[in-house]
Design a protein that fits this description.
The structure is a single chain. By secondary structure, this protein is an alpha/beta fold. The chain folds into two domains: 2-327, Rossmann fold (3-Layer(aba) Sandwich), CATH 3.40.50.150; 335-387, 2-Layer Sandwich (Phenylalanyl-tRNA Synthetase, Chain B, domain 1). Helices cover 36% and strands 21% of the residues. The protein contains 14 helices and 15 strands. A seven-stranded mixed sheet has the order 5-4-3-6-7-9-8, sandwiched between helices. Strands 11-10-12 form a three-stranded antiparallel sheet. It has a three-stranded antiparallel sheet with strand order 13-15-14. Helix 3 links the parallel strand 4 (97-102) and strand 5. Helix 4 (129-135) packs parallel to helix 5. It starts with a strand and ends with a helix. The mean pLDDT is 94. The chain binds S-adenosylmethionine and zinc ion. Zinc ion (ZN) is lined by residues 257, 259-260, 262, 277, 279-280, 282.
């Protein structure tokens, strides 16, 4: 079956039994990830500008062979786990020099056909992406595997010059629903809280930053988002041990009370959990080390939003998502108004009114992209309860 995404038309396997994600003859294509791919294309446009990765742009990656201070080469993009090749084909249509890799020969045959169908060039590799990323470097590397990206992370950090894009669909280990699996894979303790998508995102960022730091590289998140089914992060890699130290300083712990939903956060690699919740006296649960810093660069997020175009199927949705992400506060956790209301035996109010009450009481407050009833605020639980109380 043929599908159009952005500027390209690609052949993908027919979904079986009405399933939305199909493996057809063994090659995977998930139409539900179109937003993820549309945002990726917008990121590639915005990042090219940010990093001066234009042929003739500022030299940033050592390819200035004629010594005129500008880059001589078309920037490179590796679609490491390509399946149908939809990401790589879309990147090729954006004038990236693409490599499409999959260990499955049926997948790479489809990649080749999809590039040719769109009159585009690219390098096709039928091999384990980990070997490829250990042997060669690319300006941008995109890891979009089944489930956890962990088996790819070490080689992906080594194989990336500038920007590492990672999808994780193993939300249960990341969010703490499968705690032991989360500990094994991500080297950090996740806790299953009511802000679980953000827990997952910050657990993934923590693991990626620590992995990059092993190679004296800083991994700075410039855009991240979480949906019910997956987490997607974009990390700019910087070659510097001191910058790597600075990213490690963004790691820390969250102490969460399952009884009253109160939480505190601390930076550092040694946890100091309180003996009891300061709000209700109940015992707390500690998660970490999670990434506690900003999960996106505000200006870059705005550039990505502006780079969405109307040939993208999810343009409207993605622009709204990016707008919300751009305006989120940088607190390491969010609240869900409905869960707080239930806790307090109240009925929920309109989100705008709830946020206005918090601001009127002198607190910062924003919506978040984690859900329609979620918010971030500088107020603690007791302050939220007081600020939003109705007579
Ligand atoms: C979730 S699919 C990729 C979907 C695709 N990126 C998209 O946007 O439609 C994961 C792909 O990774 C491939 N894969 C799994 N392990 C791999 C490895 N070690 N090296 C290369 N490819 C691998 C699988 O064959 C599969 O085609
Ligand atoms: Zn409590």
């Amino acid at each position: 079956m043929r599908v159009c995404e952005g500027a390209v038309e690609i052949e993908v396997p027919e979904a079986r039994d009405g399933a939305s994600a199909g493996r057809g003859d063994g090659v995977f294509y998930n139409p539900e990830q179109e937003l993820n791919r549309d945002v990726t294309v917008a990121v590639l446009r915005a990042y090219r500008e940010r990093a001066g990765l234009e042929a003739g742009g500022i030299e940033t990656n050592g390819d200035d062979t004629d010594g005129d201070g500008t880059s001589d080469e078309t920037p490179t993009y590796l679609d490491a786990t390509a399946a149908s090749g939809v990401r790589g084909v879309r990147a090729a249509a954006e004038n990236w020099a693409v490599t499409l890799c999959d260990r499955d020969a049926d997948a790479t045959a489809l990649c080749r056909a999809n590039l040719a169908h769109n009159d585009l060039d690219g390098d096709i590799r039928t091999r384990d992406a980990r070997g490829l990323m250990s042997a060669e470097r690319f300006d941008v590397v995109d890891i979009d595997p089944f489930g956890t990206p962990v088996p790819f992370v070490d080689s992906a950090v080594r194989g990336t010059r500038q920007l590492l894009c990672v999808t994780a669909t193993d939300t249960a280990p990341l969010c703490g629903a499968h705690r032991e699996s989360g500990i094994r894979k991500y080297g950090c303790v996740p806790v299953n809280t009511e802000f679980h998508p953000e827990m997952g995102l910050r657990v993934l960022l923590s693991a990626l930053c620590r992995e990059a730091a092993r190679y004296d590289r800083a991994a700075r998140p410039i855009l991240s988002h979480a949906t019910r089914h997956y987490v997607r992060v974009y990390l700019e890699l910087v070659e510097s041990a001191s910058a790597a130290n600075a990213t490690l300083e963004e790691l820390g712990y969250v102490h969460w009370c399952p009884d009253c939903l109160s939480r505190t956060a601390e930076r550092g690699l040694i946890a100091h959990p309180p003996e009891a919740c300061a709000n209700c006296g109940h015992g707390v649960k500690t998660a970490g080390p999670i990434y506690c810093g900003a999960v996106r660069d505000r200006e870059f997020t705005e550039r990505v939003r502006e780079s969405m175009t109307d040939d993208m199927g999810t343009e409207k949705l993605a622009r709204k998502l990016l707008d919300t992400i751009g305006h989120e506060l940088d607190t390491p956790t969010h609240y869900d108004q409905h869960k707080l209301a239930k806790e307090w035996g109240r009925s929920a109010s309109a989100m705008d009114d709830f946020l206005a009450d918090l601001r009127d009481a002198g607190h910062e407050a924003s919506r978040t992209h984690y859900g329609g009833t979620t918010l971030k605020t500088t107020a603690d639980v007791a302050e939220i309860e007081a600020a939003t109380a109705t007579e």
